[in-house]
Write a structure and sequence with these properties.
By secondary structure, the protein is α/β, with parallel strands linked by helices. The chain has 2 domains: about 160 residues, Bacterial extracellular solute-binding protein, family 7 (D-Maltodextrin-Binding Protein, domain 2, 3-Layer(aba) Sandwich); about 140 residues, Bacterial extracellular solute-binding protein, family 7 (D-Maltodextrin-Binding Protein, domain 2, 3-Layer(aba) Sandwich), CATH 3.40.190.170. The protein is about 45% helix and about 15% strand. Strands 7-6-8-5-9-11 form a 6-stranded mixed β-sheet. Strands 2-1-3-10-4 form a 5-stranded mixed β-sheet. Helix 4 packs antiparallel against helix 11, helix 4 crosses helix 14 and helix 13 crosses helix 14. The mean pLDDT is about 95.
């Protein structure tokens, strides 16, 4: 009898250990293929840190290339509704959903990905907080300033945009392309390669880092950037978790996720996106690409279009109940803050 009582007590005492050792599987969904840096160099190492720090209790199952179904713009609803636990996506794939964050899509806003990513994350915790209230925010970051890529001729002035069908990733950027005289075509990046091959578009604006994953450096031969300390454009990326799923975790597991989220994770992302620009650009060089940097009067004319677009965005945001001017100035000041560090 005494032996039986001791055995029962032992089992009771061991139960909390058994419960805490249960694996928690979190499903991650993304529209990009596994080899892309967002998955292979950003999310995968992040997931491995969580597994290691939780002694194997937190397990992230990765489903790239929309393997769990749906289209890229649906990712944001999938994570909000709990269809998946974690996503990485482009904020601008759902126009109007994140009106405050859209300020980072405006022309000539971004500095380096490092500075602008930290700025965008801090912004998402302050003036942009209401945009993401339905989610557990892991990080908000951006890519390095984007470049204009076309199949044939270099763009050396604003006149060269006319007649070109150019892909843009978000509403703000397609408006910019229209203002420059191009015919904008909005689409997620996985559609770009087939659209180039079929002649649906003549080119696109994307950062260098995304090109190797879709062999875009082989499909475009003319690459135009802009000179100066502000890039043509960038766009916010969202690394989000379902809020209810996060709240259901143990305090220990929440602490591990919190430790590996926030401004430091945005900094890691920004540095990564800056670093991978160089080898990706080198691939375009090796593929026989031509390169040009807009400067002087041609760049001034393009910046005038950007200034008008920013002014229009401020007016539109203000009409919709937001303080447009304050949001633009806040984003600019935050970028400057992290740029000076």
């Amino acid at each position: 009898m005494i032996r039986m009582i001791c055995l029962i007590i032992g089992i009771i005492l061991f139960l909390p250990t058994l419960v805490s050792a249960e694996k928690v599987v979190l499903r991650y969904h993304s529209f990009l293929p596994m080899p892309h840096s967002s998955n292979s160099q950003f999310v995968k190492p992040w997931a491995e840190r969580l597994t290691k720090e939780s002694n194997g209790e937190l397990v992230i199952e990765m489903y790239p290339s929309m393997q769990l179904g749906g289209k890229p713009p649906q990712l944001i609803d999938q994570v909000r509704d709990g269809v998946v636990d974690i996503i990485w996506t482009v904020a601008g794939y759902t126009p109007g959903r994140f009106p405050r964050l859209e300020v980072f899509d405006l022309p000539f806003m971004p500095s380096t990905a490092l500075a602008t990513s930290q700025a965008s994350h801090e912004y998402s915790e302050t003036l942009g907080k209401d945009d993401l209230d339905e989610y557990k925010v892991l990080a908000v970051h951006v890519h390095a300033p984007g470049t204009i890529h076309t199949k044939k001729d270099l763009i050396k002035s604003i006149q060269h945009f006319k007649g070109l069908k150019l892909r843009g990733p978000t509403r703000a950027i397609t408006k910019m392309l229209a203002g420059l005289g191009a015919t904008p075509v909005g689409m997620p990046v996985p559609q770009v390669a087939p659209s180039l091959s079929k002649g649906v578009i003549d080119g696109m604006v994307v950062p260098w880092e995304v090109m190797p994953s879709f062999k875009l450096h082989e499909l475009t031969k003319a690459h135009t950037g802009v000179k100066g300390d502000r890039g043509l454009y960038t766009t916010p990326f969202l690394f989000l978790m379902n809020k209810n799923r996060y709240n259901s975790l143990s305090s220990e597991h929440k602490a591990i996720i919190d430790k590996n989220s926030g401004i430091e994770l945005a900094r890691i992302a920004g540095q990564l996106w800056d670093d991978i620009e160089v080898p990706a650009r080198q691939l375009a060089l090796e593929a026989g690409g031509e390169f040009f940097q807009l400067s002087g009067e041609p760049l001034k004319q393009i910046k005038l279009v950007g200034e008008k677009m920013t002014s229009d965005w401020i007016s539109s945001a203000t009409k919709n109940g937001l303080s447009g001017k304050e949001l633009v100035e806040a984003a600019q000041n935050l970028i400057k803050k992290y740029e000076d560090r």
